[in-house]
Here is the input.
Amino acid sequence: MRSAIAPSYHILGYEAMLTVGLLRFGLDLAEAKVVALLADGWNLPLAQSTVSRLSTEFLVRWRMLCEERLRPLLPGLAPVLLQIDGTVVHGGPVTFRARDARTGLTLWAEQLEVESKPEVIRFLRAFRERYGVPALLIRDLSATLREAAAEVFPEVPQQEDHWHFLTDLGPVLLVDYEPLRHGLLGGEALARLAQWSRSLPLTGRSLAELERVWVRLALEWIDAAREHPGGFPWQLPYLEVARRTTRVVRWCEHLLSAHRHRRIAVPSEVVELRRRLTTVLDREGVRIPYGRLEREVGLWTEIRGAMRVERSRRSVGDLAPLAAAEVAEVQRSIEEAGNRFVQYGEWAEAIWAKVRDQFEAHRPYLWVVVPELATVVRSTVALERAHREDRRGVRHRTGQSATGPEMGRLGALLAFWANARCRWFVEEGLAGVNLWEAFARQDPKEIRRRLSGLPQEGRRPKVAVTAEKRQERLEAWVQLWDGASPVDAWLGEWAASINGGRVAQEAPAR
Here is the structure.
């Protein structure tokens, strides 16, 4: 039964708000869909503007509920392994989040103007005041985050995300990838091969026709390797182009040998295919970087293997914690791989020297062992995925691909809503909680304060003039100076026009 708590307004408000909030953010329904669903199924006609207002208030109240419930639960989280990260769309506020690495619990979130050192310091101080000092802080390679964390939590070790480290290491190690790409593309070599393939038949019946089809298929297979040219250094499409080209040349040679053995005439296209591909591979701009890159990739693969970091074609995955006892072995394996690599010559020695420097520069942040843990927690992937899930929800609810405006308005609130999907919070923080009663207990003045502050959260303060009135107010100031009346006669009026209609208490000094 519902307890006899006096709600701040009619009971329908809470029930309607809970229903709207769960439909909007639990099921990711658009506002118009919620309006139709409530009108048809519940006989509850609500204007879309009302649904929008109730949706926002629901998120504000949910955040307040999380803040109330989380602090008493903190001992059950210890030690706190804190992940921090921000997400932003160009020109909008940064949604910055602090999350427990083991449970996935969002502990704090704010909209920052920019991901600058002062803003991150402010965020971390707010976290520290509320939750104290974590046992570990996990972040990406941002110098801003590193310096801000060192200032607020000088006693806390910082662990860098291994995905980000290797992403930065890739260009240092795979230095011949770009030369190989330029060598393959030079003189429109690949474009000319693709153009030639389109002149060959798609089907055939005779041996000669089918071998021409085979030539076309081989060229299409080579060209398909560069359909997804991004993802460097985790994807190396132009290395795959070179590898496929090499393989097709070998197949051509095998075919030519087999034809001679069978005393069958060789189609000129097979001969021409071998000639053209061999010409590409024999270019100095291809041959030299191709040979080196294969060796560089060998070292790259060994380093990733030692660090237990693998990536699928589409996305990064969570990195399993690394046993603290294994750290020395991982470092030894990387060093041994480098020692083998330098045997290829001076060019390899130069690359390995830079790779070692990179490891050395980040050594304090790569292999952090916390006394309370037997493992190294080394990734922010789950936090970055949580950002993406928030954006995905925005796209579902709005039907728009652009998530910037909604994330700029509600990003920090949505970060707290992610706790509704956190199993630990549901089991430990929401057990026995009646949302209706919890919302009814909340201070309505605090609700109004937070709602009124949302439009400004994470945005630089601006003069209180609407966009459509700015030019008018600027021109009015200039025109007022053309008159003969004393300045004091109109100063207060103009001040009120840029201050939301309120007259300033004291005129600015001149």
